[in-house]
Amino acid sequence: MRRIRPLFATAVVAALALTATGCGPSEDEAGGAPTASASTAVTPDAKLPVQVPENLEELKERLKEHGLDLDKWRDGEWKNWDRDKWLREAQDFVNPVIEDLWDPDRIREADEPNEPVEDEDISGGGDDAVTDPAPERKTARPVKTPYHQSAPEAGKLLFDGPKGSMVCSATVVKDPRNPGRSNLVWTAGHCVHAGKDGGWFRNIAFVPSYNDSGLTSAQLEKTTREQVAPYGLWWADWAQTSEQWIGQGTGSGGQGAPYDFAVIHVKPEKGGNGKSLEETVGSALAVDFEAPAAQRIASVEAIGYPASAPYDGAKLFGCADKPGRLSVQAAQPTMYRIGCSMTGGSSGGGWVHTGEDGERALVSNTSIGALTAGWLAGPRLGDEAEGVYTAVSDKFAGR
Q: Which of 82, 327, 350, 379 has a CA between 20 and 30 Å from the CA of residue 56?
């Protein structure tokens, strides 16, 4: 596996705390398009720069000093997107839970944050890089219902940007510091942060097994929240992505695409019953940071909720294919690429590979895709991805 350089993880105050972002809805691909990015670099040995006072009133007062009133936020202030008022430091974490904000209609109407890639925009990374011929387009297959039995780790990720409510896909993954009790979710970096042109999204929430029984969009208009979110909503109380994505990511992936991954820590919206996300859904995937190169993998399956035409975001789909290689830049690691018809909304969804030991593991996530909806590409997870994952796990060790 190619190793690039030591990790400098970027800690994120998921949704609210750092800076405003904007994200334009479009097709399948890797990016959001927030605005004004701010990041805090953290070395593996450093403590994450989060200081949350034990006293809630003290926290409220400190946030007011930065122009953020939690009480007003819950009463609807979050709708007023003013990037200049957002916190640019990572000293106070803020992503207050707003119960019932994500009702069935709001979830159903959320758009995708991606922009598709023109095939001619893929340069192949230069003479020193390797890009295989574009794969044959494969039509995504519907995942068998109920989803909690066939793909219990999969779910829909919701968040707000300056242009409205957005949607991605995500996967429940194991937590090495909390075995059997994981609250970690894996997704794309562009589903939490807009890259070099923006900042962090807000009101980030994960819906495991969204629309578990696979109802149509018309049927979903008449359903209850419990039916569309059978395992509840889980709000992000921390998110982290790569320094490379924040510094180089764009609305169509850009040079940040090979590092377009993120890890979120979540908590139940309504307090829950003491069970972790992993215990609630009954499963979590291991993450393989030493997966073989593309040419040595027989097959990988990408899963997600595509939302751009001809899909509508209601149902879970998957594509299985032997991956090829895609290079964005010669100095960066090659990405995996497969033939797949899934569109925007599937971004962030997990790519699953069965190893020689017979165990399923996450090896990538959907990052970018073609304007023609003929292929998807995802980062090959290495040192940087493992550093982000480990940092979030360590932060919540024993919790």
A: 82
